[in-house]
Amino acid sequence: MRQPDIEIYVKDADHNAITEWLSAALGPVSAWRQQGQTFKCSIASSDGPIPVTWLPKAVGKWNSLFLESDMTSWDDDLACARAAFAALNVEVRCAPGGWSEEEAEEQADRWIRISSDGEEEITWHTT
């Protein structure tokens, strides 16, 4: 099932590298607008604009990339994380599937780690 949005966590990448990757993968990216600690832009996809939020150092050294649309070329966070790792060659983490507030807290700590070591499920305490 297609997720309603995509969120991944990227280590050691800036929004310039992210811009290049998103432009190649999804379409033209507008200029980033800084709003407090976050950066926002929009991708002009063939299905309509995709709002994007980049939060540097959202969790320690990890940067959050949030695509607020189900109109990307990825069905879920994992597919996007795999594509990000392939394009950027930096470690990427994502939830193993959709997640909701109603889920148990231990489920919230389950993550998929994608790196040069491969892909594995880990426990990551983000709070």
UniProtKB/TrEMBL annotation:
UniProt-recorded name of the protein: Uncharacterized protein
Source organism per UniProt: Pseudomonas turukhanskensis
